[in-house]
Design goal:
Blueprint (H helix, E strand, L loop, with lengths): L4 E5 L5 H4 L4 E3 L3 E5 L7 E5 L5 E7 L5 E8 L10 H19 L1 H5 L4 E6 L8 E6 L2 E6 L2 H18 L3 E5 L2 H6 L10 E6 L5 E5 L2 E5 L14 H10 L4 E5 L5 H8 L4 E6 L2 H13 L7 E5 L2 H4 L7 E6 L11 H18 E11 L6 H15 L3 E8 L17 E7 L1
Parallel strand pairs: 1-4, 9-10, 14-15, 14-17, 15-16, 17-18
Antiparallel strand pairs: 1-3, 2-6, 4-5, 5-6, 7-8, 8-9, 10-11, 12-13, 18-20, 19-20
The structure holds S-adenosyl-L-homocysteine.
Length: about 400
């Protein structure tokens, strides 16, 4: 792969690049020489010809360059199989150090191997689910490198199959051919779905092909374990339940009953199957297909604990105000329903809503609900979802564990 494309950055726009920010927006670009196609490797220089970074370029995207190496680390770099393999090996070593080799190497192992920009591989998500590996190559550049990624994953993890899931929203932003929502493609081996994974002593089915995102929300692993710790003797309302993972952990922690609410029938079927997989008495789990917004206004369930884990409400800046109204609404109505002395575990996965702002909205909800609230924990994605400190945008999931008077 040659990297004859050279992107020159405007004077005064070098600093974020040298500080490690992985995105170069079109407004910072002075000129592009040698451009042939979206996703091709490039060098990034300043107006004096000094090398700033290397990465890949896409003129059809608002983010013209995504950086793979910056500063002195960019000197002499070739983006080839050895580069990708090295990056994946480092990502795997980090997971082993953080999660332990039993979790990473075990039969039902489930973890995020690559968290895109957070692992210095912009555009690439890789999740391991037992014998399966599911990836998302979200940019034109990562689409070009996909073959090298698959080779490296095969050698490193020896999975039964490697499956690719698309993201139509990202595909549009990158000018890629838009595949159908959630469509997938087997890149290596033979698809076998669902696969069964283990998480903190529970087992879950993951529908690799038909599930949401890559099939499971690994980012919530630690927060589900926290819920399990506080659930003994409680009735738990699990809103936006997907396949019921929070509810299963609560039940394994001694919760009396769980009610899962979601709009997706397939997800709720998965929740029932997951309960059976964990030997849970069907009497203790109920599912309801409903829109959480109106549902929370007329709950007929004694809620000692409510979990609110909604989908991303804001995908663009123009949607932030509406997202904040949405968070206010569900948190207010949840707080009104919680029994005195109960808990609210509330999340936002909108990267555009900063943590302080989310807390402010929840505070406003507590004031309106006239419920004194204590913050017990601040919650984030689990450790296999690292964030590059230069890249605020990568910090999407935040939550609060609250005790409600
Ligand atoms: N807590 C889950 C992940 C939740 S993902 C876990 O730990 O696995 C968000 C879920 O919200 C999806 O399953 C989606 O189907 C559901 N959803 C989206 N909008 C909804 C709405 N208005 N009412 C109910 N469910 C909704």
């Amino acid at each position: 792969m040659n990297s004859k494309c050279v992107v020159t950055v405007k004077k005064g726009r070098e600093k974020p690049i040298l500080s490690g920010h992985p995105w170069i927006f079109s407004g910072a670009v002075k000129s592009i020489d040698g451009y042939r196609e979206a996703g091709q490797p490039c060098s990034v220089i300043d107006e004096n010809g000094q090398l700033l970074a290397c990465g890949y370029v896409n003129r059809s995207s608002r983010i013209t360059v995504r950086v793979l190496a910056a500063g002195t680390a960019a000197e002499g770099i070739v983006i080839d199989g050895a580069f990708i393999r090295g990056a994946l090996e480092r990502a795997l070593d980090l997971r082993e150090a953080l999660l332990g080799s039993t979790l990473v190497r075990g039969a039902g192992s489930a973890f995020r191997l690559v968290n895109a920009e957070g692992d210095y591989l912009p555009g690439l998500i890789v999740d391991r689910y037992a014998e399966a590996v599911v990836l998302q190559a979200l940019t034109a550049g990562m689409q070009r490198l996909k073959g090298l990624v698959v080779d490296a994953l095969r050698a490193l993890l020896r999975p039964s199959f490697i499956y690719e899931k698309t993201d139509p929203h990202m595909a549009r932003a990158e000018g890629l051919d838009t595949a159908a929502d959630g469509a997938g493609l087997c890149l290596d081996g033979t698809l076998r779905s669902p696969v069964v994974i283990e998480e903190s002593g529970a087992r879950f089915q993951v529908e690799v092909d038909s599930g949401q995102k890559t099939g499971f929300y690994l980012d919530q692993r630690r927060n589900r374990a926290i819920l399990r710790e506080i659930s003994a003797g409680m009735n738990v309302l699990n809103c936006f339940s997907y396949t019921g993972a929070f509810g299963i952990q609560a039940l394994l922690g001694g919760a009396l009953k769980v009610l899962n609410v979601d709009l997706s029938e397939a997800a709720l079927r998965g929740a029932v199957e997951n309960a059976a997989l964990n030997g849970i008495d069907p009497e203790r789990i109920t599912t309801m297909k409903a829109d959480v917004f109106p549902f929370l206004r007329r709950v007929e369930f004694p809620c000692d604990v409510i979990v609110l884990d909604p989908p991303k409400f804001a995908a663009a800046r123009s949607e932030v105000a509406g997202a904040l109204r949405g968070y206010k609404d569900i948190n207010l109505n949840a707080l009104r329903q919680i029994q005195p002395g109960g808990f609210l575990m509330t999340f936002s996965c909108s990267g555009l809503v900063p943590e302080e702002l989310f807390q402010k909205v929840v505070f406003g909800a507590a004031v309106d609900a006239k419920r004194p609230v204590q913050i017990l924990r601040r919650l984030h994605a689990d450790v296999d979802h690292p964030v590059n400190i230069a890249h605020r945008e990568g910090q999407y999931l935040k939550g609060l564990l609250l005790r409600v008077e």
